[in-house]
Amino acid sequence: MPASNFDTQLTLQVVKQQIYQQMCIEQEKITNDVILQQISNPQFNWDRPAKLLNTNKRSLKRWVSETYQRQINQKLTYQDQETLTKYVKQAYNNNYNLCNKDLQLTIKSKLIGQYHWQCFYTAFTNTKRQCIKNSTQINSSKNEENNKIIEELKCILGFE
């Protein structure tokens, strides 16, 4: 089962059953925090839930650690998204390496809210991609303008 095809309710039910069996925690008391705590535990047995869901444990772990966590974690506020965009644009325009972890941590420290690393990294990556895309669009439109000017000059100078 590809990660995108997981039924959220069924998958969580199966994961909760596994937590119940391993930790003897009543299913009604298994909150999102308990789920996140237990799935981070290296002792968590992914084999049984994966078998019950007819998938491999790698796909299941990935869905739970990425998709599920993203669903329950806080999203960046509008103000923090604006701050993130400002710093990413500034770094990009000054030719900083946007893959630099120190730069990312510095930008994250400028935000008002405290965000899960995955939430921040997703927002950072999307902002970085948008910055690069916008820069490429600007450069290509400048190139088109430059090409028109060059063609005009060639005609005026008789090179064509």
Model description:
- There is one protein chain.
- The chain folds into two domains: 3-72, no CATH class; 78-157.
- It is 70% helix and 0% strand.
- It has helices at 8-23, 32-39, 47-52, 57-72, 78-93, 101-109, 117-157.
- The mean pLDDT is 81.
Notable features of this structure?
mainly alpha, 7 helices, 70% helix
SSE blueprint:
Elements: H1 8-23, H2 32-39, H3 47-52, H4 57-72, H5 78-93, H6 101-109, H7 117-157
Question: Could you give a quick summary of the protein structure above?
Answer:
With 160 residues, this protein is mainly α.
Q: How does the major sheet shape up? A: none
- What would you call the structural class? mainly alpha
Overall mean confidence score, pLDDT: 81
Number of domains: 2
Oligomer: single chain
- Helix proportion of residues, in percent? over 70%
Tally of alpha and pi helices: 7
Shape assignment: elongated
Strands, count: 0
* Low-confidence regions: none
Helix and strand run: HHHHHHH
Q: State which percent range the strand residues make up.
A: under 5%
Work out the radius of gyration.
24 Å
The N- to C-terminal Cα distance equals 60 Å
